[in-house]
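DM from R.C. (forwarded with permission)

"hey, sorry to bug you on a friday — could you get me a structure for this? deadline for the figure draft is monday and I only need the backbone to look sensible"
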Amino acid sequence: MAKLACNEAGYFAANEALQIMGGMGFSEEITVQYCQRRTRGWMIAGGSVEILKTKIAEGVFRRRFSQRPADSPD
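My reply, with the result:
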């Protein structure tokens, strides 16, 4: 749960900083673009945020949840 919370908080902070900086936030001289890219990568590496949420739910509810979408009715 800590990994999920830190990933989401870090990405939120970096994305807000990028919004505040505007186009200048994408400049290589500014650290904001680096932080945004790194935190986005952390959300994917080691299991995506969606998979982490599913694993947490499995622990809370003590049952398994399928990662596959349900078959659509014809």
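R.C.: lifesaver. Helices lie at 2-21, 31-44, 49-61.
me: no worries. The CA atoms of residues 11 and 39 lie 5 Å apart.
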